[in-house]
Write the C-alpha cells for this entry.
Amino acid sequence: MQTVHVETASRAYDVLVGARLIDSLGTRVREATGARRCCVVTETNVGPLYADAVERSLRAAGLDVAERMVFAAGEEHKTLATLGGLLEGLAERELTRDDVVVALGGGVTGDMGGLAAALYLRGVRVVQVPTSLLAMVDSSVGGKTAVDLAAGKNLVGAFWQPSLVVADVATLSTVPGELFRDSCGEVVKHAVLADEALLDALTEHPLTERRDERALVDVVARNVSIKRDVVTADERERGLRQTLNLGHTVGHAIEAASDFSLGHGSCVAAGLCVVARAAAARGWCAPKTAARVEASVAAHGLPTGTDLATDELMRYVAHDKKRHEDTVNLVVPLEIGRCEVRAVSLEELRRMIELGR
C-alpha cells in the first residue's frame, strides 16, 4: 500500500492506494473520522459487487450502518433529480453531522455522494471509495463534486474535501476493458501535465496491457501525487488548479454533444489531442510535443479527435464553467510536463478546434 497525504486549507486527508483494502475499510474509516454511524451511497453496477463487503467491514469496526442508498448507474443519472433523492434519503435515515457518507463507485458516485454530503446539514463528512481507474486517479481526490445540467457538465457543485480516500485496485479486476481503457485518458493527461517519464512509460507500455496490481498501485499513486501537488497549491481553482482541466474544455463539449455516449476519459483524450495539435499549429508548442501526446493516446486505443461539428461543440463550450464573458480559460501544452492557462476568445477557440481536427 502507498499513502499520499493531501493537505488543503479546508481539510487534510490521506489517499490510500493498495490491493484488498476494502477488508480493512471500516477500521480506516473509524480512525480517519471517529464516526459511529455511516451510510453507503452506491449505484446499480457497483453495489452488487462490493457494497456487502464494504458494509461488513464497516460493521466489524463497530460502525452502525444505515440502509444503503443505490441510484441508477450512468452519467445520464448525474442530475439534480438524483441528488434530491439522495438528500431525502440521508434525511430519512436521520444522519447527523457526526456521521459519514461512504461513496462507493466510480466518478459519478463520487460526485453524487460527495455533493450530497456537502449539502446535507450544510456539510457532513464523506469517505471516497473509488472503484474505477478514472475515479482513483482523478475525481475522488481534490474535493470537486457536481451534477450536470441540460446545458452542460458539472455546472452545479461544491468543493468538499473527503476525510479519506481508499483506492482498492483489486476492484479494477471487475472493470470491463472498454471502461478501463476510457479511464486511461486522465492518466495520460496527468503525464502530459507533469511527468515526462510517465508519459514515455505509458506510450511504450500502455496501462491497458499491464493491469497487474503492482503496476496499478504505482501508476495510481503517482497520478494522485500529481493531483495532490496541484490541489494543495490551489484548492479552489483560482490559478494553478485550472491546469488540471487540460483537454477538458473541448473534451466536455464532445461529451455533452455526444449525449454522453462517449466516456469521460475518451473525450478528455480527444480534447487533449485537438488542443495539442492546435497549439502546435499556432507555434505554442513544438510539433513533436503534439505528436507525443497523440502517440500515447493512440497507444491506449483512445480517440485522438472528433467528427462532431464545430458549431455543435461551441454550443456547449459557451456554457463551460471556465468561460469568462467572451473568453475561455484554455489549458495548452507548451512541452511535456509544462502547461499554461491562456484566455482565448470564443472565436479563437473555434479556429483552434478547426486547426486541431
About this structure: Residues 39 and 66 are 5 Å apart (CA to CA).
